[in-house]
Design goal:
Length: 160
Amino acid sequence: MKSSHSLNIVLIEPEIPQNTGNIGRTCVGLDATLHLVGQLGFSLDEKDLKRAGLDYWPKLKLKRHDRWESFLASIEPTASLTFFSTHGTQSLWEVSFQFPCYLVFGSESRGFPPSFYERYKNSLVRIPTTGPIRSLNLSTAVGIAAFEAVRPRRPPTCHF
């Protein structure tokens, strides 16, 4: 069981090892746990993954889940799940994060499984952009969302 103040990043079927490596590095910097769910588009032993994560990768709190249902069974019943998607109607800037907090992201090319868009429609959040792009890079989106989630709770010893 995680502490009630924990931050968790959840990636559903990530495809690009460099993104996951960068996200792992961000998780270490925020003392967050990284959850990898479903089929990965790479091996956890892949050199690009570890190159992007640098020497931080061994310090990462990593949990692997074969299926979404296995992930759900592993978390606290009161955990807050926030799904990041370009289909979200609520802006990141309007969200008040509750802890333990799980920030959930879909794969780079497919997003979430189709059923998620209906099942979690009230928990879909978008990161506002002002330029003509479809979406942000996954590791960039995770960084923005994770730092926004912890910003109001930052400890006095934090080096922000």
